[in-house]
Amino acid sequence: MRKYFMAAAALTLIMTTTVLTSCTNDDDPVINEVVTDDKPFPYDSEIDESVRPGDDFYRYALGKWLDSDDPSPSMAKQIKMANQQLVVNAMNTSTEPLMVQLRNLVDEAMADDSRNVALLRERLQMLEQVETAEQMYDAFAKLHQWGYCPLVRVTPLIPEGRIIFNIMGTGGKTMEMDTVMAFKDQNKLTEKVTAYCQTLSLLGYNDERISEIAKNAEAVEKVELGAYLEQFEYLRRPEFLTRAAADDEDKAVRVAVGMLMGLDREALENDLIMAVTPGIMQLMAQLMNAAEHPELVPVFRDYMIYNIISQDVYCVPRLTGKTDRADILNNLLHYNKYFKYRVMTESFGRDKIYKQQCLEILERMRQTFIQRVEALDWMSDATKAEARKKAESMLFYMGYPDTWNDALTPIVDGDCLLAAATQLRQQATKVITEMVNKKLNDVGWDYWGTANSFVADNAFHMKSANALIILPAWITKPRFNNELSEATLYASACTFSHEFCHGFDDGGAQYDADGKESDWWAPADKQAFQQKQQALAALYSQLEFYPGRMANGLQTLSEDMADYGGVELALDCYKQRLIEQGFRDEQLDEQIKKFYLSYAEVWKYETERSTEQLEKAYGNDSHSVPHNRINGMMRLQDDWYRLYDVKPTDKLYVAPEDRVKIW
Ligand SMILES: [Zn+2]
Which part of the chain has CATH 3.40.390.10? Predict the structure, then answer.
């Protein structure tokens, strides 16, 4: 990383020189030449001059958009819409050999689905013959071998920088998370299960049997969905990652189910595989209880029938009546995320993802952070040394890997779409299980590509691995656009510094350079750090979430700390960059204003246009609501007071001595 940074710094120097040259007058360089930014800056068009910036900067910056009857879509919305189209394009046009092969299989299935139907019937018949608990366990194991993952499946987790498995609920099968969330509603769950089971009528099942299957399937699916949703609560809690092995009884169930799933016995015995939530343990215990409770056998049997049909329905066009090729392919590749990530990246075009440029900015942020830590007046040298070590060793994953791991491309040689789907699912499980016990450092992109989706417009910091990833959708147009003022780039790059600073927020600061939970703080420094956190939370609690309802600064503390550090760091880097380019005085100030307006643009969200939607969002997010991400931050910025003439009588005003300074 350090070696890389040297190269990046050299490159930046070259670019800076070019800009300076182009700003001087032909052969007659003038020392005090005024440097200006001539690139377009569209984000001042929504300013509402009737609002005092010091009262509500979010509304000042975006007022015209907030009040517009016909608002243009926000960047987040534009990206979301573009990504949906992107998936369709990639599925229809990718020239990856496997994609070509799969498209042919889809076309064949649409012309004649008899082979797919025969294979599906064969599997359903195997399940119909299940009568005893033993037969049920055999069927469960068989379905796992075929990659259907009934009840539970494995996903990777990384405590202390090493990959282990989490056995999690499968909830929603092949669906994306947001679709799954929709089924929190019991009526929708019933509708979904009924709709899938109804397709069995086309395979000769009678109505009575179908409603029996639906009833049994729904009973299990309800518990499973609860367990699936519950685990996201758990994933938010850092302590579960370092939790000691579950008690013996849990472990016995976990090992038994793990064996049925075909997982490695040694890994199971050594706690490299865990099941984290009570809901999942309850599901697994019920499954193992079926030997003593024969009435559970038909319930699980019917659930498995539903499990198969809900995943395979896409391979048999007559069952859905749907003939959208891209949709079918997208469903098939749901679990083969690494391969899909690869297909999407290449279809989109690496050159349209600003990987190199963003990595250079991020490396610059790392160095700036280290300089800022060295200059802190509230921290001792010993703690500074630890913070520096952690900052220096943080791993960065930007966009996509330099080279793809060909070993992770599935091999498909089945003679029909359903056989291919089975192989795809089997290989997806294999990819994950082969990562167990490896260090994130050694399989970084294999992990990130497998755990994420190309189209997720997001970025993450993982404190248990001291690593961060910025997903490709975040570093493409319209959010990163080199045709616009560089101020817009640095405002978007606040996300990089935000993720970086998560390593040093209230939770992140409890993990060391290796991602181990460890107290590297001198006691007096820790006390000062905690006082600053309390002061920051108190400032955010002074803001309104929506009219009449105050925000809860304690609930959003980690995110507010990352926002705070992120903006400080990004603006510091941007200022350095401007000064290198020769910007001074008013021209420099002008750029800082552009940076603030661009930062408001990043958090321009549709939810802000409706009090009703804001009310719905209350208490559901660990982030501050968008307007507070802007207003809460601005009132900590000394430059902002100066540039917008903010006075003590303005609503957002904070006295200089009360403006919290952390990093
Ligand atoms: Zn965050």
Answer: 64-82+344-419+453-658
